[in-house]
Amino acid sequence: MSRSTVHEFRAVAALGGGDAADSVSPLSSPADDLNQRIIRLLQDDGRAAYDVIGQQLGVSGGTVRNRVTRMRDAGMLRIVAVVDPVAVDYEADAMLGIKAAPGTAPAALAQRLEPHPAVVYIMWVSGRYDLLVEVVCDEETELAIFLDEHVHGHSDVAHVEVMTRIGMFKNQFLLKRHVP
Q1: Which string of b and e fits 38-72 if b means at least 16 CB within 10 Å?
Q2: CA–CA–CA angle 93, 2, 132 (5° rounding)
Q3: Model confidence pLDDT, tens digit, residues 50-87
Q4: Domain 90-164 coded CATH 3.30.70.920
Q5: How far is CA 7 from CA 4, 37, 81, 101, 141, in A?
Q6: pLDDT digits (tens, 9 = 90+) for 12-52
Q7: Residues 50/52/53/55 CA torsion (nearest 10 deg)
């Protein structure tokens, strides 16, 4: 099954920091109680009609539409299609714990890996690794090719630990509750 097949729609709160957060209206803030409830309903069904959401929350559909528009315009909410890896049952997916080579900035390594379509998640972390990189592939051979071509033998990678999925217990986007 193709990675582009959409099985689930979710709202993803893209919480920005810095300058955008300094000038955010309370009506566009994900910290606002009504906005949090709207986002939770959109996480269940990103295609839900604003009137239906409004009925569930005791407000008008116009209020919901205005709140969603303000959060989107402020760069704090994106409604995107997300493929559920449990439903698709990819043949190969792995979390890579990557230690950058001395002299290599984790951001530079992340920037090199980011454009590859099999890479669905990159996080700069503290501790044993510099980056956690999630790779999702349609076939085991695709994962092996990705590792050979983009990870192993590259001078910006000192060490990689490949952790393949055995089972999935929970896969959920979470809304950050407290925005500074």
Answers
A1: bbebbbeebebebeebbeebebeeebbeebbebbe
A2: 25
A3: 999 999 999 999 999 999 999 898 888 888 776 665 55
A4: yes
A5: 9, 23, 8, 38, 24
A6: 443 333 344 445 566 667 678 898 899 889 888 888 999 99
A7: 120
Instruction: Tell me the residue type at 106.
Output: P
Please name the residue that has the structure tokens 């099985």. Answer: 7
Q: Which two tokens stand for residue 79?
A: 């409604």
**Strand order through the sheet with 119-124:** 119-124, 131-137, 92-100, 157-164
Please state the domain extents for the chain.
8-82, 90-164
Q: Which CATH number fits domain 8-82: 1.10.8.80, 3.40.50.720, 3.40.50.410, 1.10.10.10?
A: 1.10.10.10
- Tokens describing residue 177: 């509750």
CA Rg value for the chain: 19
Q: Write down the pTM of the prediction.
A: 0.57
Residue with the two structure tokens 């890896």: 85
